[in-house]
Write a structure and sequence with these properties.
CATH superfamily of the domain at 84-174: Immunoglobulins
Radius of gyration: 61 Å
Number of helices: 1
Mean pLDDT: 77
Distance between the termini: 186 Å
CATH topology of the domain at 84-174: Immunoglobulin-like
Oligomer: single chain
CATH architecture of the domain at 84-174: Sandwich
């Protein structure tokens, strides 16, 4: 019965609506939003920052090996060359001739000057006597001196009319022809050399300052115990054990300095010392020691 009433009511309403008797009011029914719950457990992603080990690049400066190519000097540069001169021997070859030998290293485009003096122990060019050797490869020269004279000798490099490099000092005593001992053994017709007798010969003396003098000599033979230089004011009373003396212990020496009172004239004689006495004597040489004026 109720259902019929509802149907009749729906019909009456429908007719009314069609006839426009009942205004239509629009109502807004908000739509419902249904959020579906997730059916799975959400996955959590954790992002962590793990820095990588830093890469360190070390740059070292490794020098390149030095090259062996030498620098080439420019036109204004000069390459230093050591120049040396060394006298190796000075010898009396007889008749007043003196032979000088030397070694040399360096540049000698204009050759050498061989310089000598009987008074100066530092002979120099052009002050003292000299002989010119133009050959830069020469290592020997000869000059002529006076008999019974001691000469001091040097060799120098000659360039632009002067000498700029000097050698060491050499010296030589020139004998008088009648007093010179035999330098080499004579060779008889049999071809056997004759023996040379030992000798000592005082060649020269030179002042070495007030009350001093240098004595030079030549000697041939064995002198294991050296020499004695005897001296006194009487030339006839010179003998070992009786006269005053200087002791030259080295048998290879050929020069020695003696001393004494100013302005005194002494006579000197040398002898070969045997260890207990003298068995060989030289000539007698006189010399007056200098003093202040």
């Amino acid at each position: 019965m109720q259902m019929k009433k509802m149907k009749i009511l729906d019909g009456v309403l429908s007719l009314a609506l069609l006839a426009g008797c009942i205004p239509v009011v629009a109502t807004s029914t908000p739509a419902s939003h249904t959020v579906d719950e997730p059916t799975q457990t959400p996955q959590v992603i954790v992002v962590t920052s793990t820095p990588e080990t830093p890469q360190v690049i070390v740059i070292t400066a490794t020098p390149e090996p030095a090259t062996a190519t030498p620098e080439v000097p420019t036109a204004t540069e000069t390459t230093a060359v050591q120049t040396t001169l060394n006298i190796t021997s000075v010898a009396d070859s007889g008749n007043g001739n003196v032979v000088v030998n030397w070694d040399a290293s360096g540049d000698f485009p204009a050759g050498f000057q061989v310089v000598w003096s009987s008074t100066s122990q530092e002979p120099s060019f052009p002050t003292d006597s000299s002989t010119y050797v133009s050959d830069p490869n020469a290592r020997s020269a000869t000059f002529h001196g006076s008999a019974n004279t001691l000469y001091f000798v040097r060799v120098c490099r000659y360039a632009n009319s002067v000498c700029d490099v000097y050698s060491n000092l050499g010296y030589v005593a020139v004998f008088a022809p009648t007093l010179a001992p035999t330098a080499k053994p004579a060779v008889p017709s049999s071809g056997t050399p004759a023996a040379i007798s030992p000798y000592i010969y005082i060649t020269y003396m030179k002042s070495a300052g007030y009350g001093a003098a240098v004595i030079y000599w030549k000697a041939y033979g064995t002198f294991d115990h050296g020499f004695k230089i005897l001296y006194g004011t009487d030339p006839d009373n010179l003998s070992y054990g009786e006269s005053k003396s200087f002791d030259v212990k080295n048998g290879t020496y050929r020069v020695f300095t003696v001393t004494g009172p100013y302005y005194t004239k002494f006579y000197y004689q040398m002898c070969r010392f045997t260890g207990t006495s003298c068995d060989l004597y030289s000539n007698v040489y006189s010399f007056t020691l200098s003093g202040p004026n």
